[in-house]
Design brief:
The strands form 4 sheets. Strands 9-10-8-11 form a 4-stranded antiparallel beta sheet. A 3-stranded antiparallel beta sheet has the order 5-6-7. It has a two-stranded antiparallel ribbon with strand order 1-2. The longest helix has 28 residues. It folds into 4 domains: 58 residues, no CATH class; 179 residues, Ribonuclease H-like superfamily/Ribonuclease H (Nucleotidyltransferase, domain 5, 2-Layer Sandwich); 113 residues, Alpha-Beta Plaits (2-Layer Sandwich), CATH 3.30.70.330; 61 residues. The chain is built from 21 helices and 11 strands. It has 450 residues and is of the alpha+beta class. The N and C termini lie far apart (74 Å).
């Protein structure tokens, strides 16, 4: 190649991908410099087109996301806040720290989103139709689309009523793939679409007379539910993507609000690494035998390796962590017979406050199971103690007491110097000491108040 460039000005080296992506290398003769320049320009443009083709092929599903965004299509999901967050993180950018920020940003890309779970719970017509039954995806599908749902579980219905969603999958998953099973992404999307279509029918929306140019997102029968998503179905927390603010009014989840208590993060203990197969009920029983029958308000499973235990009071968090640490350090019979022994069996049970959960999940490395995530994060301790609220209040009161004492001392010193102010001003060190103590006390008190 170097020889051609140096000694043969009328020859040019070009290369390109031929059939089956095989590299083709050629030496081309050109009669003039203009011909050579034209040839090299064509080769350069061809290389650019090949590179763009490769990039477009690699982008893949991103084209679908961009098209949905540019066309401002109505996006339909079921309890889909996490789905939207996943799409945002993979195709738009890093997730904002606050849900309100995420909501506002999502709305710029997808201005029309409707959640069928919101729709089913908020509309009284649909509530009457489902008779206040469960609104999980499979339950709603069975209630609103019974023929499609029943045909998938071998009910003897005619074969034409059976419907499966054909989805291309990679070789690693093909052996376990069932295109007509719930929790498979393709079939879940199909069920969500069926629920939405059936719900629209019950609301009086006729797709036969709906013009293609009409945007369903602006239909007056759906307006009250557009852009509302559940942040937490358990607590009934709803966020409005249009405003980025949480919605205070009830949307049909009062029953769940009574069944499940409000989540209070400072009352939560994170447990992981406990014996496999230990259920939430058993974990609750172990703890309530020690702290009382009403001490635990809820136990949530993150996965089979970890749970959140929410206590009635915040101080119980520090009490539990301290007791766990003491039991693990003790080898006596009390630790073996203790009600928490079942929870600590195996010696791999870890415990910490909710703050530790946020730290571990903030890692850039992600694992399927929380126990694995914690190990990758570098957790080596078994119990991370936290100070009780009472202790913190005591420290605060002690600090205030010291400040008040300092102020009283300063006031006395100032009072003593009142009658001899001229003489005392000569003593700059004493004056500076009094002023410094007063300002220090006031500054410390302001910091405590703020």
């Amino acid at each position: 190649l170097q020889v051609v460039k140096e000694h043969f000005k009328d020859l040019s080296y070009v290369h390109f991908e031929g059939e089956n992506s095989i590299l083709q290398q050629l030496i081309v003769y050109t009669e003039s410099k203009d011909d050579k320049d034209l040839l090299m320009k064509e080769v350069k443009n061809d290389h650019r087109r090949q590179a763009e083709t490769k990039i477009q092929a690699a982008v893949g599903f991103r084209h679908v996301i961009d098209l949905l965004s540019s066309e401002k299509k109505l996006i339909v999901g079921h309890n889909c806040f996490l789905d939207i967050a996943q799409i945002y993180s993979k195709f738009i950018g890093p997730l904002p720290l606050a849900a309100e920020e995420l909501a506002s940003s999502v709305n710029k890309y997808f201005p029309h989103i409707i959640d069928t779970k919101i729709l089913l719970n908020a509309n009284h017509i649909l509530q009457q139709r489902i008779k206040k039954s469960k609104t999980s995806l499979s339950s709603a599908f069975a209630l609103l689309c019974p023929h499609l749902a029943l045909s998938n579980i071998n009910t003897g219905l005619p074969s034409h009523s059976y419907l499966s969603v054909e989805v291309e999958v990679d070789d690693l998953r093909s052996c376990n793939w069932n295109s007509g099973a719930k929790h498979e992404a393709g079939y879940d999307a199909f069920m969500t679409g069926c629920i939405f279509a059936q719900a629209c029918s019950h609301l009086g929306i006729d797709f036969k007379i709906q013009l293609p140019s009409e945007n369903l997102a602006y239909n007056e029968r759906l307006q009250k539910q557009i852009n509302l998503l559940y942040l937490s179905w358990t607590n009934g927390d709803v966020i409005d993507l249009s405003t980025g603010k949480k919605v205070t009014e009830s949307l049909g989840s009062n029953i769940l609000k009574k069944q499940y208590p409000k989540i209070v993060f400072e009352n939560i203990v994170l447990l992981w690494g406990f014996p496999s197969g230990l259920k939430a009920r058993e974990i609750r029983e172990c703890i309530t035998k020690v702290f009382g029958p009403t001490s635990v308000t809820s136990v949530y499973h993150l996965d089979e390796t970890a749970v959140f235990v929410q206590f009635m009071k915040a101080e119980m968090v520090s009490d539990f962590l301290l007791l766990k640490e003491k039991l693990e350090k003790s080898d006596g019979p009390i630790s073996v017979l203790h009600p928490l022994a079942k929870l600590l069996e195996g010696g791999s049970t870890h415990a910490a406050s909710y703050e530790t959960y946020k730290e571990i999940c903030g890692s850039s490395i992600s694992k399927h199971l929380f126990a694995d995530q914690a190990e990758v994060f570098g957790i080596r301790w078994k119990t991370k103690l936290v100070e009780s609220k009472a202790a913190l209040d005591g420290e605060e009161n002690g600090s205030l007491g010291k400040e008040n004492s300092t102020m009283r001392t300063a006031a006395k010193a100032a009072h003593k110097t009142k009658h001899g102010v001229v003489d005392n001003l000569r003593d700059n060190s004493l004056c500076d000491q009094i002023i410094h103590s007063i300002y220090a006390a006031e500054d410390s008190q302001l910091r405590t108040t703020n």
